[in-house]
DNA sequence: TTGAGCTACAGACCATAATTAGCATTGCCG
DNA sequence: CGGCAATGCTAATTATGGTCTGTAGCTCAA
């Protein structure tokens, strides 16, 4: 998929929500990564809006954060 | 990403929700694809649980279906 | 200062998301 | 019957998701 401005927008908002909830849970990126079963640097990229995560990864991360997947997708879409 | 059983599970449930809501809206796969700006066959693959869609694609499809992205992610995660 | 914990970032790599074209099948309708 | 709409399915290609290694910067405590 091409990296359109909209692409960047949604991905960035998703990353912001991940970072926010991770910090509320007082987890480091590495702790979150380990719990989610993804790589350390990948969490960083997601939070910075550099990676367009898939459903499976979203579920992994939401599980590791102890929130439903819908929490991470909330309010990402509207302008 | 490896195709683990969990992978298949979440992806399949997501596809089921897409198909359900598409049919409730009385759209063909092709109409949905055009509205979402993705290819016809891709929608078919998603509904059949063969594709692990990304955030951007989820938002595109949810927009084309006229529902919030959270609607498509709802109840995908639990066993 | 020195060291430890946390994060940003770059580069290389493999698996796969997403595109596209093509053909087969099913069911419905004239 | 023939034709049309909708879907399933395959194969080939390109772009990118996700892994891994390593470097560098920051803050804070000893």
Your description of this structure?
Chain A has 79 residues and is mainly α. The first copy, chain A, has a single domain, classed as 434 Repressor (Amino-terminal Domain) (Orthogonal Bundle). Helices cover 66% and strands 0% of the residues of chain A. Chain A is built from five helices and no strands. The first copy, chain A, has helices spanning 5-24, 29-36, 40-47, 55-65, 69-73. In chain A, α2 (29-36) packs across α4 (55-65). The radius of gyration of chain A is 12 Å and the shape is globular. The relative contact order of chain A is 0.20. The mean pLDDT of chain A is 92. At the A-B interface, α1, α4 and α5 of A face α1, α4 and α5 of B. Chains A, B: Pfam families: HTH_3 (PF01381).
Tell me the layout of helices and strands.
The structure is a homodimer of 79-residue chains.
Chain A: H1 5-24, H2 29-36, H3 40-47, H4 55-65, H5 69-73
Helix pairs in contact in A: 2-3, 2-4
The structure holds a DNA duplex (30 and 30 nucleotides).
Element pattern of chain A in H and E: HHHHH
Quaternary organisation: homodimer
Helix content of chain A: 55-70%
* Structure classification of chain A: mainly alpha
The top level CATH class name of chain A: Mainly Alpha
Radius of gyration of chain A: 12 Å
Q: What fold name stands as the CATH topology of chain A?
A: 434 Repressor (Amino-terminal Domain)
Superfamily (CATH H level) name of chain A: lambda repressor-like DNA-binding domains
Mean pLDDT of chain A, nearest integer? 92
> Largest inter-chain interface?
A-B, 23 and 23 residues
The largest pleated sheet of chain A is described as: none
């Amino acid at each position: 998929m091409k990296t359109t401005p909209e692409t960047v927008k949604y991905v960035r908002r998703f990353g912001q929500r991940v970072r926010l909830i991770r910090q509320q849970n007082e987890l480091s990126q590495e702790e979150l990564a380990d719990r989610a079963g993804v790589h350390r640097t990948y969490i960083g990229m997601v939070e910075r809006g550099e990676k367009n995560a898939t459903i499976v990864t979203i579920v992994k991360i939401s599980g590791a954060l102890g929130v439903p997947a819908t929490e991470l997708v909330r309010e990402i879409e509207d302008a």
